Amino acid sequence: MREEHYWPEWDSDFTADRAAPERLPAADPLPDHDDELADELLQPASPRRLPVTRGKRVRRGLGRALMIAGGAVAVFVLLYLADLLASIGDVPRGVRVAGVEVGGLSREEAEALLRRELEPRLVEPLTVHAGDVRVELDPRQAGLGLDWAATVAEAGSQPLDPLTRLRSFFTDREVGVVSTADDQRLRAALGALATAEIDHQITEGTIGFQQLDGDEVRPYAIPPRQGQRLVDVDGAVSTVKRQWLLARTVEIPVDVTPPKVTLEGVQAALRQTRPLVSGPVTVRGEGKSVVLQPRRISEALRYTPDADGQLRLTVDPAPLVRVVQPELAATERDPRNARIGFAGDMVSMEPSQQGRVIDWESTFAPLLRVAARPEGRELPVTYDRQEPEVTTEDARALGITEVIGEFTTSGLFDAAAHNVATMAAAVDGAVVRSGETFSLDRRTGPRTESQDYVVAPLHEDGTGAPVIGGGVSQFTTTLYNAAYFAGLTDAGHLAHTHYLDRYPPARDAISLRDDGSSVDLAFTNDLAKGVAIQAEVSGDLVTVRIWGTRQFGVGSSTSDRAGQEPPPVEADSGPDCVPEDGTYGFTVSDTRVLYDVSSGREVRRESHEVTYAPRPTVFCSPESG
Fold it and tell me: How far is residue 113's CA from residue 546's CA, in Å, rounded to a whole number?
């Protein structure tokens, strides 16, 4: 509204002016910077107006803006109310169910659309991803279905928030399906999948070998695989029910045991293995060589996971030894002790020999390095040197130069002579160092058929029960007396139960008791030098000589017999009866005197007493009738 201002003193003139207006002279042009003011001043002459201020102009603009905003709000409210009224009862805009857009549809339309789109999925196999396994689950067999009405209801009702409704024009949101499920059937189906396919043991990565023609092989990688087990079956049931229509693959958690070796570690081991089996390796011994073909090499390679996920490659010598040992055994030899030999009254020396045996660990230790070469694939055999127990120097130091004790017995016959010869051969050449104790049983071992002993009467005179090794006590007595005259110290022996007149009284020894059990004979070499035993059988004689360095002269005396008992008389009429002459029983002692050979002075005196039992006289009478 325009304001007009009047001044009272102008009233008369104003009336006149209106009656006859005069054109005023043209005014000077106004400045360009105040166009609005110029417009006011150039208006036709009328009641004069005051100029409009800046504050008035701001108030005028604000009023216009408020009028526009009010109009926009009114329009928005009208549109909101119209949209709300138009969509009451419909599914909210922007809603998707299992990927199907149902927003803005009525609930009936939404359910019908979901049925068309989702019903085919209800019978399609569902992929279950569990760890490193993907398996298919049949929804029908697992008891899975869909509650259509509840699924549509899951979308919710129309929102009243204007901003939410506005955003729905530009955004989507996914709403889950509401499944119907037979939990028992679904749990059983998942359990069956776990047993058949999901659960599996850990597989450590390693290297395998494919057999080619002949002895050729090709290495290949066996990739690692984690071990896994479906533990939370109830959790898997819940996950499947919730997600089975949202995606065609449902992931369920499993307990995982990771392998120690990585796939990269297996591939690195494969690259290391290929040259090792690319050709043969020659194992070269002293005077003999054996070729290891690639197949044999592959059998000895071992792969072990380390802390860094790599495969550590080593060699197991055992399979290789089985291949090459039969051929290389001829390059080994046992150590040989120096042996004392005897020729009549002369002693001879068979020198010792160093032995050698293959050290298989050291031999095959460089195999990985040698087999990796394209050429020069030769593996030298490593030998361990073995020294003999008695070297030639040791034998010479024994001081075995002369016979220091000798004894001979006679009366050998038949099988008993064979057994005595077998025992003599086992003892011949035995060396006893100073301070050592000789054991007859330890030297000869068990007297069995495998050791060439035969059945013979128990006693040397042909009496007694037949036993394996019968009659060997004659050799035992002969050895005892040879050691006796050599000045060696008795370390244990047992005299005969009954006296045999082929031996000096109180100077006999047995190896078999009357019941056939074994008895040992032992003596100790307490001389300054070592001794060697020479034993031989000739005809019905057995002789034992003790060789060494003479230290003692030996004298022997036997006491009178005391407490003699006549033999009892026994009569036998059985078919196995063998007549025997009885012997008296008595007690007797033997005394050995040792003299120093250099001075002739008596060194010591030893006495030994024996009591022999009488042996019955047996008469055989004819059988009655």
Answer: 119
